[in-house]
Design brief:
The chain has 3 helices and 9 strands, in the order H-E-E-E-H-E-E-E-E-E-H-E. It is α+β, with helices and mostly antiparallel strands. An 8-stranded antiparallel β-barrel has the order 1-2-3-4-5-6-7-9. The two termini are 29 Å apart.
Length: 189
Amino acid sequence: MRLLASLLVTCLSSLVWAETWNLSESSVHFTSIKNGVAPVAGSLKTSGTLTGTSFQVEVDLNSVDTGNPLRDRNIATALFEAMTFPKMVLTGRLPKDAIPAKLGETRRIEVASTIDYRGTKTPVNFPMVLTRIGEHQIIMATAHAVSVSLSSLGLMNGALEALIKLCQHKAVAPFALVTFSGSWNSTKP
């Protein structure tokens, strides 16, 4: 009986990895500090796929939403230069046993990934929590905020200064605290 159960788990695990998972209802959230004291929080829309153990998430840099349309436009145009660099791409691999097999099961994992932006590839690790909420649905979110250096994204020379000048700020922190949350829905092969 144990052998049969073991074979069943192995077969089900391989079926999970044969599926393609599409990202929906997802976003990247960020917080930065302007003028040394004022937090600025916002979000960006994302899309992506997970096939096998490999994932790719695209961040739409024209979708900045801080609740202030003028600020959104300033961040998208002056900082991200979204007309020239419209997206940031995050790629990586999940550990083979990362996706929970049972409904309600949660897994905590560390995801090594790479941010590809402006021709620069920046390695970053994200602590993630994955929870299976349906037969074909997983919720994935960062366990806590991750500090991402604006310098590592090529935003310190020129882009950040342009934003500071445009908005007449004294300063903007050279990093952002970043989180991610999203729902992954599978399609059978």
